[in-house]
Specification:
By secondary structure, the protein is of the alpha/beta class. The chain is 51% helix and 13% strand. The protein has a single domain, classed as P-loop containing nucleotide triphosphate hydrolases (Rossmann fold, 3-Layer(aba) Sandwich).
């Protein structure tokens, strides 16, 4: 990746690894935008769903039965009842959310240099020139301890959070990328946070960028 040209860095991460903080600090150091919540906010506005509902739909496993009978009909806003027909209701499926997310992410990445957290950017933006794909991981114990502290949860509660988010993200990746998010061949750089601070991780990424930019 050449930082002297328009670029995009995708930052995939395991929940509880500190990857979101790494992405924010990295964007600050590179003086570019950091996209994370903005994408979710775009989906919320498009589908009139909560973040939890969006993640649940995204995490559905792909099979003919789910695709046939599992959907959510977005409730219409009050002002839209005038002259409204039943077919105006929007059926929200994983495919609909993926397509909207793909368009949002592609538009952002093509507009300016940026750091993108999650959203499976490593495959959604596949083929985009001047891209660096990074994966932030950590041991299960490290992740549990971090979630316990940050969300004030017990260990069993933190384990449930990890298991649920991991399964949702893996299902989404396998459904659309036809690969596992844990396949390290998807990334240019993989960082284990067990003995690395967020600032240290940023330095590792910047060092790689400097070498590639020369």
């Amino acid at each position: 990746m050449d930082k002297n040209q328009k670029f995009v860095i995708t930052l995939s991460r395991e929940v509880g690894s500190g990857g979101r903080t790494v992405g924010r600090l990295l964007a600050q150091r590179l003086n570019v935008r950091y996209y994370d919540k903005q994408i979710i906010e775009g989906l919320i506005e498009q589908f009139n769903l909560t973040p939890e509902e969006i993640e649940r739909i995204k995490g559905q496993k792909k099979n003919w039965f789910n695709d046939l009978v599992t959907h959510i009909v977005v409730p219409p806003r009050p002002e839209s009842f005038i002259n409204r027909s039943p077919e105006d209701d929007m059926i929200v499926t994983p495919d609909a959310i993926f397509e909207c997310e793909r368009k949002l992410l592609t538009s952002l990445a093509r507009e300016e240099s940026c750091v993108v957290a999650g959203r499976s950017g490593f495959f959604i933006l596949e083929g985009l020139p001047n891209k660096l794909d990074v994966f932030i991981t950590a041991s299960r114990d490290h992740r549990i301890a971090r979630i316990e502290k940050r969300q004030n949860l017990s260990r069993p509660e933190a384990e449930k959070v990890i298991d649920k988010v991991d399964a949702t993200r893996e299902n989404f990746t396998k459904r659309y990328a036809k690969t596992s998010r844990y396949d390290l061949r998807n990334y240019d750089l993989v960082l284990n946070m067990d003995n690395l601070t967020e600032e240290g991780a940023v330095e590792c990424i910047l060092n790689l960028i400097e070498k590639q930019s020369k």
